[in-house]
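Trying the structure run again after the queue cleared.
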Amino acid sequence: MEVEGKIKVIMDTQTFDSGFQKREFVITTKEQYPQDIKLECIKDKVELLDAVSPGDEVKASFNLRGNEYNGRYFVNLQAWKIDKEDTGNLTVNDINQEFQSSGEAEDDLPF
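Done. Tokens:
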């Protein structure tokens, strides 16, 4: 499964006595009515969050996990891949560099 949106918050890594590590983060979806979705990275996947920061547009791939404990049921969204999305915003310098690298000759026209 996948979810796309903007990272709202990244929590600190939690380390348990057994050595197990978990780090949670929240993505705000890009829908008409945006939702804040909490996901988690566990074990070696905790490092995925080092490459992103709040405000980044991302696509997170995750597994849906459910379990029962003492008659209560829990659902976790465990992320296993996080890709930064290209926002597609080009600056004037980016456009000039693309134009010059394409081999097009510059015009001397004033408009």
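The domain at 2-101 is CATH 2.40.50.140 (OB fold (Dihydrolipoamide Acetyltransferase, E2P)). Worth checking whether this holds up in the mutant runs.
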